[in-house]
Every structure is written in C-alpha cells, then in structure tokens.
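Collaborator request log, item 7. Partner lab (contact: R.S.) asked for a structural prediction of DUF3805 domain-containing protein to inform their binding assays.
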Amino acid sequence: MKAIIYKTATFLILLFFNQRLLAQEGFIIDSVEFCSINIAIPDTCTAETKRSVKGKNWSIEWNYYDKGRFPSTRKFYSGFMKTMGYKFKEKKAEFLILNKRVSGTIVTFKSENEENYSIYASMLVNKQIVVIFLSLNQYPVNNSSLPDFAKEIIQFKQ
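Returned to partner:
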C-alpha cells in the first residue's frame, strides 16, 4: 500500500513539475505541426500547444485519433453540444484540408448571450483521423471570413 501511495505521489509531483516547466513565462512555441507539415506562428497569433493556436477573435485546435477509436466525429461533437446544454444549429459545408475535399459542419450556438461559430471537420490521414475545430466570433461564409493562419489548415471548397 505504501508503495502505491509513494508511486502516485511521485507521479503527481513529476506531472506538476513538467507542467510548471512547460508553462514558464517566456516559453514560446514558434511553430506547430499539422499532419507532418510545419507551420510558423505569425506575430498576430499565439500557439497555446503544439496543436492549438489562438488569434484575436478565433482559435483552432486539432487532434489525431485511431480510426477504430473515433468512428463518427460529427455525432460526437453534436452529442457534446447537447450534453453542455447549448442550443445550436448545424449546417453542412464542404472544405479543403491538405487539398482534399472534406465534408464538415458549421455550428452556430449561443453562449453567455452571444452567438459563437465553429467549423468542425475531420478526415483520414496516415491511418489516423485528424479532427479540426475552428472557433470564430463571426459567421464563416467563405475563405475571406477565415483567419489567415487557419486557411493554412482548412479552407472552404470554392
């Protein structure tokens, strides 16, 4: 029993130390990798993690999942929105990711009395599913309404 407590305490201390080390002031991520493509972070953005970038009125995140472990990304996201109690509308849209046509969803939902907008899309890359989540403060209608950095990852199919 003492060994389990000791190992657990050691793990938590190391986890806390690693988070503190990575969160040190001045630690700046200057590029991110999306599907093996290195993308530089412009001065107008901040990389919060290697898979998350934030701008003035937007943020984009992506993650990778094993194909068998994440079969329906759209249903997962809709279920999450319902669970959180958001009233939302979905509209299907066509996007380009890595120059490949992908079906995705534009979601409009209210949060704290203001409308928010998200683009949610996924595709299979190197036997994994990459899921992209772009949050915006204005309704996205075409590529000119997307942030420049986000357009390096996802664009509307014209």
